[in-house]
Structure formats: structure tokens, C-alpha cells
Amino acid sequence: MAASSVWGNNLRISIFGESHGPAVGVVLDGLPAGEPIDREALLAQMARRAPGRDKSSTPRKEADEPEFLSGVLEGRTTGAPLCILIRNTNTRSADYQNLLQVPRPGHADYPAHVRYRGYNDVRGGGHFSGRLTACLCAAGAVCRQILERRGILIGSHVAAVGPVEDEPFPGPEIPAALLRRLSSAYFPVIGEGVEEKMRAVIEEARMARDSRGGIVECAVTGVPAGLGGPLFGGVESLLSSILYGVPAVKGIEFGAGFGAARLRGSENNDPYYYGEDGAVRTRTNHAGGILGGITTGMPILFRLGVKPTSSISQPQQSVDLLAAQNTRLEVHGRHDPCVVPRAAPVAESAAAVGILELLLQNGALSPLEGLGIQPERREGEAQ
Amino acid sequence: MAASSVWGNNLRISIFGESHGPAVGVVLDGLPAGEPIDREALLAQMARRAPGRDKSSTPRKEADEPEFLSGVLEGRTTGAPLCILIRNTNTRSADYQNLLQVPRPGHADYPAHVRYRGYNDVRGGGHFSGRLTACLCAAGAVCRQILERRGILIGSHVAAVGPVEDEPFPGPEIPAALLRRLSSAYFPVIGEGVEEKMRAVIEEARMARDSRGGIVECAVTGVPAGLGGPLFGGVESLLSSILYGVPAVKGIEFGAGFGAARLRGSENNDPYYYGEDGAVRTRTNHAGGILGGITTGMPILFRLGVKPTSSISQPQQSVDLLAAQNTRLEVHGRHDPCVVPRAAPVAESAAAVGILELLLQNGALSPLEGLGIQPERREGEAQ
Amino acid sequence: MAASSVWGNNLRISIFGESHGPAVGVVLDGLPAGEPIDREALLAQMARRAPGRDKSSTPRKEADEPEFLSGVLEGRTTGAPLCILIRNTNTRSADYQNLLQVPRPGHADYPAHVRYRGYNDVRGGGHFSGRLTACLCAAGAVCRQILERRGILIGSHVAAVGPVEDEPFPGPEIPAALLRRLSSAYFPVIGEGVEEKMRAVIEEARMARDSRGGIVECAVTGVPAGLGGPLFGGVESLLSSILYGVPAVKGIEFGAGFGAARLRGSENNDPYYYGEDGAVRTRTNHAGGILGGITTGMPILFRLGVKPTSSISQPQQSVDLLAAQNTRLEVHGRHDPCVVPRAAPVAESAAAVGILELLLQNGALSPLEGLGIQPERREGEAQ
Amino acid sequence: MAASSVWGNNLRISIFGESHGPAVGVVLDGLPAGEPIDREALLAQMARRAPGRDKSSTPRKEADEPEFLSGVLEGRTTGAPLCILIRNTNTRSADYQNLLQVPRPGHADYPAHVRYRGYNDVRGGGHFSGRLTACLCAAGAVCRQILERRGILIGSHVAAVGPVEDEPFPGPEIPAALLRRLSSAYFPVIGEGVEEKMRAVIEEARMARDSRGGIVECAVTGVPAGLGGPLFGGVESLLSSILYGVPAVKGIEFGAGFGAARLRGSENNDPYYYGEDGAVRTRTNHAGGILGGITTGMPILFRLGVKPTSSISQPQQSVDLLAAQNTRLEVHGRHDPCVVPRAAPVAESAAAVGILELLLQNGALSPLEGLGIQPERREGEAQ
Fold it and tell me: How high is the pLDDT of residue A380?
């Protein structure tokens, strides 16, 4: 879309900024009023994404001190658009001078050059920089707090780095304690000893001046059944449209996902039963909490395939756009050999924004909260 | 979204109808005027999706005679909304009486019951029926013709049925002849002998009163570089939001997709070079023709994970919503043990709608075509 | 917009068809499920718009027998898209042959010719025909029933035809009985004897082969306070964006509207007071029930300026687009010398669609109705 | 809409900030890349709106020093979202303490209190403040420069203040020199001596502790014929949806508008003729450059009815929301007795944003500019 950095309908987020410009930021419009914002919790989520904490990420240190410019008064949302600004610091633009001429393989350099006819800001990736995910994290942290207050939890783990795989979620029901642990971890994994194996693979890639991809798996619990719709209004459409906004994501699957392609129907169908609380539940959750585009009340589960970081310092083949000839490229500067652990909080944040939009779209959470018109009910209808 | 069956911005498609109602149909608004519509080509695409052609699909025969109610005059689009109506025939509603009470595992029955508070039309799946994909095929066939006239081709193959895999596309460049062959086939595969192996797996599932899933892989060639944008306006977001509208799809990946998670950056990055025609191309296409959300000019490649058909006639565990107790369910009626071959033309159709929207959004194809205001150009800018 | 005949977000209506094509129709997506549809009441609203009832309108008789193609089962909405189809009959295309060449002044002929590059269907006005308002009436009739069930009433009167003015609404509060009388009238006026005077002016115009415009004033009662928002999400923006979809409307004003330009602030400000029912009300309603884009709980009031019918049989100056020279044009055929009385039910219908969207957008009417997540409330907050 | 402060599709503007918060600002997404931004011209437009220049406006002085946070590099747009931030200074919040309790008649206080359940920022009007129009002016100034570069000019005049009326535009064609003069004036009027008469009326209102409304008339020249569409995609719908975002606007009319209600068809229809340049033109412009929702190539003309400033210092009747009883209110502080002259640049700005969106939606101005796919043309088609 021409207006590419805006997402949502009832809730709208609008992200702006370039890596080496004065600031990056995000505007959230459509938030319910009166929601307390816990600044510390927000900073904690942003810190999970921030680079420079250890050897698995880029040494660039970002201050990431968010400034609330609007939409918050005395610690609560006002209902007006909420703008969070993050000033850029510690930018070294000299590293990126020749990108206008020789595009980096795997980066947006070349298509962006065509798209913006050479006028885009290429310094540090410009508006395509991973830096912009700080805005998504800030927005997601706000939405996450609103959701948690209503019993909706979001957590994710690094399901794979290269060939090393984490253990899966323990069963169709996911304990709140596990999600809370994962959603506060810097390198969230379920299995013991997994982080160390993954870090070893990442370090090996760094030493080889190479990079590694992986998989992030995310769960959302507490979403009531009955949200979404068939065809294009399905939860998968909604969530994938925001999740593909996370840089480096090249695949998204829900529940059993591509694995369902190898299952038989008798294996993949999730049997229904009544839980002890009287709610309809399923004994497995291959559907990932979504059937016919509508939530089933089971946890929403999705996995993101994250490609290996495009920035590597090995020599690569490219083209010289000014000389119009083939050439070789060697990129120097600060690179993160594996963004997967940092992609986890970004994925959770995108999910938080997406789920809040889902609730608002479906009237499950009204900005008016309780002021609505009362309906008539038919005898014997659902719930 | 509350309005779930409408998709697009500059081009809008609106799908309506229920499996056992009077008709299903689709409205396309925003089409350029003066585009010839080849009715035979449209019928051929719809026939690829229609059931009842052979043992691998349901025995129900649909007439699928589309009626153009508006938007076409003397064989060309008028620019006004184009409505295609398909009357329903051969419906046997008696088969579906108890679905209100006992939801089928893997189907939308239960979440739809909650969503619509018991008022939804459950006969034959109602608005959730695969029957609605006939509308998507019709819409896609219209868009495909407009795209082909501008050198954009779309084709797909059944990349997998259960454990049987087809050969991949032959290389980063995909021959037009191959796409044309695939996009007119009823069971499109690339490799020789693959169809027979896949049919054997499907027949085996049928005999076991079970079903099979698989993977559809689709390619779009001829899309110019420079379309799309970063963050939420990326081509992956756009396409996945319509592709997840295809029933039974639980995973979507672009290019190397989840496979990229196991590659190193040095393997996954696609090296640039100048082609003989002077265009910038890549030696591999792990990016699937999209970097930073923007087209690179290489073929757009994506894969859909299709779950096994939920309708199986084996006994299954479910719940009785009226008695509020667990129960067993045995479903009779006409079922398709594997929808993957029929999902291929539907995926191509969704892609055709998506790509036409992409062109219109980016002004690459203007409904005014040539009436636009002329821009100023800067010396030395791209192209 | 390229996709011009679709409106709304949470509720979407999509209108299709051409005056002399096979049919016109409308799809409504996003309706709550379980709403009874009273077919007779719908036909009654459509009859108010239909031409050919008396000398003040065109002699062409339309059957206007709407067919429900989807979204309704056993007389109630299913929650799936609701499609209403109206077949065209009694079309005499021969009257319109030279419109391709010589555009009628005041009609869309010329700009549509440019817009659609000569491919648009000009017969009977094509997609620009007033015939399409039958679809809006049908859609509005469905929405109106949903609103009435929740205490929201809509009615309008012919406030002016040429120089003849009707009496205004009697005061800030508008009796339900008056709105019910107006919204079932074919020529709705408040004052006694006004209809006869207006008919005389219309008849005079007909005899002079000329036409007359006028003003429709509409009221909506029962909308709760607190819906809408500042800037672009205001109720005026929402309603005007659909009301300008009513052909021939060239002006829209809310409350005192342009008249407020001549008032002083001390006159125009509506004083607040507590009503006997304990609700906050205003002693005047110059705001038309909207302040800062948000409903005040007072009746929503708006007026539409309707231009005189463009089709007149007097000779007029025009151009011959093929010969590229000035020429004279004489239009024959069936013309309505004043569409204002028929515009009243169309305006009410557009308002009904708009207000239902407003309720859904704001979560005041949830498609889930009662399934939503419960909020926390702060001590002492509003209501 | 829940997300109320975002507008547009292909071009999106997102406004944030509150009158007494740290800052107000606007994000524009979807701008074409490579457009030079003239900062001085932008400041000049913002200065026209700023208060405190003379006795006809509020004595509060705003610095209004806009900071470009993103989207501009070396003086040209990058194609990424452009964010303009304006810090708030000189705020005296003490004046507004009791607004939470006693809403001001004619203001958004009461409905906003209900809408946001008491959590909205009421200081200085919060997000409802006229201060937010500074953002619209900044956004409009950017768009206006892009339009001017393509021959599209926008200008407006104060058509009325209370009973004093300005002269109308001189004829159907509007000289560029006149528009340039008006669009740089602080109190734009066409007739000689009109400003003085209007200022006298405003001063009289100030002395009476009262306020005055009026009418702004705006013209846009150079928009090509063929943009827009029927029904809801008409230019009137598009423009009114953004123009009603200008505070205090209660009426919008195009061309003859409500005046057309008193004309006969033979008077109101605009006769076509071929101009000396070979273009189709009309001898009058009652249509305001729009027929059937589509531009005719004639100037787009519209008028805004602006209500008298709600803030007056006379005692007024209101309610005490905490005590739940009627009361009287006396407002002190800085008030502008007539915002009409300052509304003129805001109206022009909203029009500039709207017209740029119109061009982008219709592909008349492509962000790719020249990279698009070439169409086929039919012999003898329009232009």
C-alpha cells in the first residue's frame, strides 16, 4: 500500500521514523480511555528487543527512552491518539555511504531504490531498519497491558535457531506461569539447556562472519470464542497482515500449520469435550485456536519463520547501479548474527496490537464499555 | 472483522451466499474500464475448482453457470461494479440437520455457533462452505485476464499431498509455458508420475474414511520491481490477508519461508547480477520476489499449507451443545478426501485479486490509464 | 475512490448494477445475527422511493421485487453477508443512444466518459442512475429495523421545493409519532397544506419542461450520547460520506448549519439542563445532536440540498465529443421534474446505514451482543 | 470511528496531541518520494492559522515551530512517513479546572466526557482544541506544494462573517493570481473594503463578550476531469469527510449547493462548450466542478458554514455533572470571537490533503511516477 506504515481499523497504529533520522515513533489511535499505563512494564518489553545486551546481538547501544507526547494523562489513557517518541542517538552514518550504489543482497536496498526512485533514506536502513520495531514494541506493550487486565496473556519462545529446536508448548492448555516467564525473558526458551545450544550456533555463525535464522512460536491465551469471521475477516488474515510487518519474517503458520499437510483428518481434527469449568474445549489444538477464521476459545498459536540476518560481512555478489555492471560487495559495520531472540518480543507486540484490534472490531471490548445499547436475546441461544 | 467477506481497498471484492441458499456471488469494484472479459477462459478456471470431476473429489455436481449481473457491456468491463452470480442447485439439506447441536471437529461449526449466537445457516456449511471459493475463482479469473494482458502470469502446482512431494519450480526464472500448463491443469504437478502417486494416497485415505492435506505452491511472474512497502504495507501482508481467506489454509510462506530458518545468511541472500536484458536479477530467489515488503522483479513465490479435509466419516468425539455433555459424532454425506488439487486454482485466483490490488494501490496500473498528471523527473534517478 | 460503490468499515454495503442491465443489488456485510427482517416493512420503504406513483415523478413503473439471495434464514439475519437483488424490467434503451456523443448538461455523462474512457454503460444512466437508490433503500430498510428495535427512529420531511418551505420540526425533542408518520409518507411534510403548494410548483415546472430542486431535512432520535470522535471520525464526517452518495445532493448541513453563520455564539450555543428523566439535554438543538463530532444524546438533525433534476426536455447547449464542436441537445424520455419527495426515503435509508455503522464502530452495538469481555470501572466515572 | 484522528487510504494522515500536552503533531504516510519541501512556504501557511496576530483572534501566542522528525532528507520527501512535531508552549492550564464538572455549551465537553468516561484531557480542549488544526495546516502545506508543482492551485476567502458578505468568485474560471493572493492573505477577501466591515462585526461581538460565525468559500483549480466515482466514492464524499474534521464546521456545500434548491433545472445545469484550448468547459459552474461524483475539469468549489465560537464569556446555562443539577457557567480565558479568517487556511489545507488523496486513489499521481505498466488503448477512446 502507498500508506504502508499504518495498520488497523478500529485501532490504528502509525509508525514513523528512520534509523539515522532525529527520532522514530508510533501513534496509536482508538485505544479505550482510562487504561492505566505501567511505564516500567513498557520499558521492560522494549528492553527485550533492544540490541547490545550480549554477544548474540549488535554492539550498538540504543537508549530507547520513550517519551509520551499525547494520549496519556496522570498515567491513564485519555482516549485520544497516544504518541510515543523515541529519539535516535549513537548513529554512525558513515558506514552506509555506498548503499545507494551497490545494494546489499537480502536487504530492501534495491527494491526500495526502485520504489522511491532513489530518494529514500538509506542510512542505517532508513525506514526499513529493525530500529522501527522499537515502535512496534512500545505500541504492543501498551496493548498488552490492556489485554492482561482482561485475562489475555501473550508469550513466545525461540522455537528454533538454525538446526537447534526448543521443546514445544506442553499441551493444548498453556499455563499462565509459563507465558509470564517467557514474556519477560531476553532469550525465551521452554526446554532446559536449549538457550546455550542456540547461543553456540549463533556464536559459530558470528565467527564465520555469517548469520542464522530461526523460528518464533507465540501463544495467546484467554481470548474468548466467537471472534473473527469467514473468508477475509478471519483471525489468520488479521494477524498475518500485522505479523508480516515484522522484518525478516518469511513464513507464518497457525496451529499445526504446514505440519497439518502431513496429518490425516482423523489426526488433525481436534476432538471437543466439556472442560471441568463447563466450557467447550479441544483435546488437541492443531487448529491453533482458530476454525473458520473464528476463535475457538483455545490458545491462539502461531509460528514465524525468521530468515537469517541479511547483513553479513562476507564478500557477496551484487550490482553497481550507477556503473550498471556486476560487482562484489563487502559490508562492514555492526550486525546481529541472529535476530530471532529479539524477534520474539516484537512478535508478541504485533500479536498484542492485533488481538486488541480483533476485540474492538468484534465489539468484544468497546471503547464505551458499558454504555452500549442493550440487545434483545432469544430463548436458548448460545451462552 | 465484522465485515468479513469484503477485501481490498482500491479494488474491492465482496463475496456473499450460503451453500444451500439460492445463490452465491461476488462483486468486484474498482476494475479498470474497457477490459475484455473472456467468458470461456473464466469458465475454464471455475471448472478447475468445481467438484465432482473424478474420484479425488466430492461426487456433488455443481452447474456453476455464472451470470454477469453488472459491470460488463459488449464483453468489456464498464468500470462499474462487476457482479457475478452463481445459482445453487443440487442441494440436499437433510444431511446437515444435527450440526446445530453437535459441532464437527475441525469445522467452523462451534465457533460460528458462538459468533452468530445460533442464527447462522449451517446447511452445507452455509457461508463457510468451500462452495464460496467458486466466487473467489470467478473474481480471480477476471483479474487474471487483466494481468495477463500486461504480461503477468500466475500458476501453481500441488507441491505435496501427505508425504508425496512434487518437484520444485525449475529455477529462479520460471518459464511462461510451464505456468500456462499448470494454470490450465486439473491436477497441476511439475514432476512426471507425481499425480498418480498423489492420487493413490488420496484414494487410500478415502477407503479409510479419512482425508489428506498438502501444500500448494504458486508463482507470479512479470510483476515489476518497486511495488509494496515496509512494515504493514508489504506484499507478504497484502497477499497473506487474502490467501488466508482460502478455507483450510493454515500456513503461508514466501520464497524459502520456514526453510530459511535453517539456512545461513550466506546461503539465503540472493546474489544480484545484471541479466542479458539489462535488468537487475538474482541468481537464487529465496526471497520469493519480495525484499523489505517490496517486489524485486523476480517471480513472487509462495506456498500454502492446506490441512486435511475436516469432514471425515469416521466416528469422532464431540459435544452436544443442547444437552451440554460429551458425545460421539458420525458424519455422513459427500466429502472430498483431499481438497489440495482444487485449492490450487483458488490460490491462483486469490493471488490474481491480490496482485491487481497491489498494482492499483501503487499506481502501477491506473484506472485512468494515461490520463494522469505528468511528473517531473530528477536527473539520474532510478530508471 | 477506485472502489466507489462500497461504504463502511464494520458494516459494509456494496452496491452494484446498471439501470438497463439485468439487475441492481446490494450486499450488506457485518450485520448482527438473529435480527428479524420484516419484508413488508422493507417493501413499504422501497415503495416510497419507487417512481410512477403520481404526476410528480417519472411514469416509468418499476416492479422492484427484491430477492434475498443470502444472509437471511427463517426470517432472521444469519450474520453472513446479506444480498438483495432487484431485477430490472421495463427498460427502453433506445431513448439513450446519442448520450455517448453529446453529454447532457448537469449529468455525469461527460466526466464518466472521461473516467471510464468511453466504456461505461450510458443506457438509462448506467451505474449513475437514480435506479441504484433502490439498493440503498433496501439496505437502509434492513438497518432501520435493527435500529428501531433498539429505540432509534429516523424520519424526514420535504423542507423545501423551490421557494415553498415546510414548517420546521416542532422543537428540540421530536415526537416518535411525528417521525413514524413522516417515515411512512410518500410526500412527507410537517405543515398542513404544504404538499399541495409544493405539488403545484412541481407541476408548473413539468408544464414548462423544466425541473425543481429542494431540501430534505432528516432527524434521528434515540442515539445515545458519546458516539463518534474528534477530527475525521466525527459523526458529520461519517454521515456526510454516505449521504453524498445520494444522487443530486450538493449540500449537507447539521443542526443550524449554514444558518449558524448568522447567529451569535450566545444564540447558537445550546444551554444544558437536566431533563425529568435525569438525562442531560439541551434547550435548543442548533448542534443537531453533535458536538466535537460526538453525539450529545439529542436528536441528530441534518438537511440535504437537492439540485433540480438535470434531465429536462428543453433544448440545451452541449458539445459533440466526436465532432469536437459545440452543439444543441434535446433530451426526450421519462423525467421526474422533482426528485425531492423520493429523495426523502433515500436520505433516511442512508442515515440508517450510517447510524448502524456508527453504533458498530463504537461498540455500542456489538455483533456478539453480550459475549464481550467485562471491563473494570473506576469509581465515579461517567454513568 | 474509534480511530478518529486518522484519515485517508492511499495517503494517510494521523494527527495526535492535546492542547496542553507536550506537543501536537501529524504523520503523513503515502507521499510520493523526491518531492521538495519548501519550509518557508510551509511556515507561511501555518502562520495564517496561528492565533494572536490581531484583535480578531485570541491573544495566546504560539511559537508553532514545526520539527520534521522523519520522511524528509536533504529537503525532499523520502517516501517514508513524514512526521511533523510542534511543541506546545505558553499553556496556562489553571483556566480550565472546572470543565470536568460543568460542560461549556456548544463545546465537546459533555459528549467527550461520556465518550471517554471522564478520562479525556480537558485542559485547553485537549485533543478537541483548535490547536490541532496546526497539524492539519502543516500536512496541508506539504500536500499543497506537491499539487502546485502539478498545476493545481487552492485558495479560499471569507465569504461571510455574520451578516457581512464578500463578493463571490468572479466567474466559472478563476484566475491563478487571485488564488495566489487569497492563499497568502491573513484575512482573505475578494471585495474591496470587505475586510474592514467584517472586522467591525467581529469587534462588536468581542465587546459584547459574544462571538460570530461565517462562511469560508474555497476553490481548487487545475484538477483534471475524470477523478472520483459514483455513489460513495464521489469527490463530495471524499472532501466532506475530511472537511468536517475542521472544528466548528456545521455545513458543506459544493457549487450552487443549497442555493440550487431554489434554481430550476434550466438555470442550474451548466451548458457545455469547447474552450479555445480545445478542452470541454462549462459556461457556469453550479456543479462546483463535480458531476456524478466525478471531476469535470472545472474548478472545484465548496463552501463551509462555520458556527460562532462556542467560547464566550457571557454567563450561560449548564449542568453540574457531579451535583447532577442545573447551574450557571461563566468562562474566563482567551477566546477568539471569530475563527472564520483562521478557518480559511485550515479549509485549504484539508482540501490539499483531500485532493492529493483523490489523485493517488485514482492513479492520476502515482508514487511510482512513470514506472507503471503500460496499458493498451482502444481506437477513438476518450483523449
Answer: 41
